[in-house]
Amino acid sequence: MSLRVLRAGMLTTVQDLGRTGFQQYGVIVSGVMDSLSLRIANLLVGNPQQAAGLEITLMGPTLLFEQDTLIAITGADLSPRINQQLVPAWRPVWVRAGSQLDFGAPRFGCRACLSIAGGIDVPLVMNSRSTCLPAQLGGYRGRSLLMDDSLPVGSASPQAIQRIRHLAKAVSDQSMSSVTWLAGMDLANYAKEPTIRVIPGSQYDWFTAASQKTFLSETFCISPQSDRMGFRLSGPVLQQQKPRELLSEAVTFGTIQVPADGHPIILMADRPTTGGYAKIAQVIAVDLPVLAQMKPGSKVRFQAITLEAARQEFRSREVQIDRLRCGIALN
Amino acid sequence: MVNLDLGGASVEIFPLGESGLVVRFGETINLTVHHRICGLAAYLTEFPLPGVIEFVPAYTTLTIYYDLWKTSFEVLAEGLKSLPLNLPEARAADRPLIEIPVCYGGEFGPDLEYVAQQYSLTTDDVIEIHSSVTYRVYLIGFAPGFPYLGGMSTRIATPRRESPRLSIPAGSVGIAGEQTGVYPLETPGGWQLIGCTPWKLFLPEQTPPTRLTVGDQVRFRPITHETFIQLRNDSQ
User: Fold this and answer.
1) Which of A135, A166, A185 is the last residue of a domain?
2) How many Å apart are CA A279 and CA A204, to the nearest integer?
């Protein structure tokens, strides 16, 4: 089974939950920007949560399914259509062999996740199928998808096979069929102008009291120079009390660094492993998917919470995802 | 932030998000700090603390990433407190000396002349100074396998270029301030380029995936253009 690319979109890459375990060698973690969406899409098609899917940015590709299969689309609403009919999101969708999936106008968010039963089965590179664009590594030949690519798809799980049989039974000549329920959309908390929760960073005290206040009260804008590596923010300038040199040290997904020009940068999936700018804050894990859906030009504010509160959010989110997993398996 | 005594050294520990813990050994680069970081890294490799996913050694810090379901900042901090008092410091002598062949100047080192002019040296002087010292890998970062090497002579220390190059060939050897390093992949970058090695420093199909690891000792060996071509062909 394979998935053919008939037309390349703006930027579509194979992603899983990232290439962890090699950061001491400078290996960029990469992985999907909105991990919640990919995990739920995988659960919906009976895959392990860490299976590889496609991350589709703003203008989607046209894809051809060569066999009957089960897919799920989550994350951004980029108007997905199968043979001209809108595909319901956040649910398992049976697709007939020979069907074409394409995308229309982006209606909400920036990145959609597409999971397919069996997962995208590109070779593992350092334990991950993620595409690392800066190093041109992993994924499909280390790059975003192009016309005529043919993506290998793994074997569907027994749960997926059962769902495919069940959904296929109910159709006559339609190209797709789905269930009446949807799952996981409510977990995402997406918003057009979200308030992103942060934990103060290790150099928070380096900034002037005025800049600390500005950071936590003013509105910032995601600049056009934003990508999978990081989001640059335009807006108020943040100042340090005095210029201080920081030696490079580890940075992670959601670390907010402030270079000398005073404009913060939020590090995202393709970030380098280390950085040498002052870290004013760290985005809490459960708010990273919200951030990942923000387009250049959109507005964001920040709110500080404690490490303990962030951990509580993380735990309750994981419990919710696990409940969802059980619910999907039973339905 | 917590201060604690770790193997005889006073360190600060603080969180990096919900699943990161940073151990800071000080604020300045020196060999004692570096040896302690390597010692802790070696210890954590041999006797992993439960729930630890990976760690990143840097100039004065070692950052531990962990699974929040299996451990927490507090539990790890306790675990670090109970490490043996005399943490084996990774001594210079225990590490291999790796000699990297470099073809200096010309098309491979477009900034060699500039570095020489800065200090009224000849290009041969710069090559001699750069290749007569043993360096330490303090950090691997920026790009996969990019080593930040400490120990370069201040006699050739040169600030980064004002405008970074959009593309630097893989293998390029550069200088930024008192640091020197090697670009393992073709990337943009602002370091002053003085030469190029035919070696591949990033080897994604091998374990570990890099030629150099933190703590290694490195020297550069000048080679001719012919040797460069020959070595590069051999490695392909």
Assistant:
1) A185
2) 7
The nearest CA of chain B is from the CA of A69 a distance in Å of 32
**Nearest partner of A41 among A140, A223, A184, A192, judged by Cα:** A184
Burial of A325 by CB count in 10 Å (0-12 exposed, 13-18 middle, 19+ buried)? Answer: middle
Based on the fold, state whether residues A97 and A60 are members of the same structural domain.
yes
Judge contact between A222 and A285, C-beta under 8 A: no
- Choose among B18, B22, B204: nearest Cβ to A126: B204
- Of A160, A185, A210, which residue constitutes the final position of a domain? A185
Task: Please state which of the ranges A143-157, A163-177, A294-308 shows the lowest mean pLDDT.
Answer: A163-177
- Residue B142: which of A21, A254, A272 has the nearest Cβ? A272
Judging contacts by C-beta atoms under 8 Å, the chain A residues touching residue B144 are: 22, 25-28, 132, 135, 137
Distance from CA of B124 to the nearest CA of A (A): 31
Per-residue tokens: A189: 């908390």
| Domains annotated on chain B, with CATH | 2-92 (3.30.1360.40), 95-234 (2.40.100.10)
Q: How far apart are CA A142 and CA A125, in angstroms?
A: 10
A196 and A287 Cβ atoms separated by less than 8 Å: yes
Q: Is B51 touching A (CB cutoff 8 A)? A: no
- Nearest-neighbour CA in chain B from A80: distance (Å): 35
B2 touches chain A (CB under 8 A): no
List the CATH number of the domain containing A302: 2.40.100.10
Please give the residue range of the domain that contains residue A214: 195-319
User: A107 vs A187, A192, A224, CA distance in Å?
Assistant: 19, 11, 19
Domain assignment present for residue A70? The answer is: yes
Which residues does A215 contact at the CB level (< 8 Å), separation at least 6? A207, A236, A238, A264, A280, A281, A302
Assign A77 to helix, strand or coil.
Answer: strand
Report pLDDT digits (tens) over B75-123: 999 999 887 756 666 555 567 899 999 999 999 999 999 999 999 999 9
Q: Do A85 and A155 belong together in one domain?
A: yes
Q: Put the strands of the sheet holding A100-103 in their side by side order.
A: A85-86, A80-82, A100-103, A62-65, A2-7, A150-152
For a pLDDT cut of 90, what percent of chain B falls above it?
72
Tell me, yes or no, whether A56 and A162 share the same domain. Answer: yes
Encode pLDDT of B34-82 as tens digits. Answer: 988 998 998 899 889 999 999 999 999 999 999 999 999 999 999 998 8
Q: For residue A73, is it within any domain? A: yes
Question: Rounded to a whole number, what is the distance in Å from the CA of B236 to chain A's nearest CA?
Answer: 18
pLDDT over 70 at A205, yes or no: yes
Task: Answer yes or no: do B146 and A26 touch at CB < 8 A.
Answer: yes
Q: Confidence class of residue A103 from pLDDT cuts 50, 70 and 90? A: very high
Kindly determine whether residue A25 and residue B140, on different chains, have CB atoms separated by under 8 Å.
yes
Contact B209 A252 (CB under 8 A): no
- B114 Cβ under 8 Å from any chain A Cβ: no
What is the number of structural domains in chain A?
A: 2
Based on the fold, state whether residues A6 and A119 are members of the same structural domain: yes
ipTM above 0.90, yes or no: yes
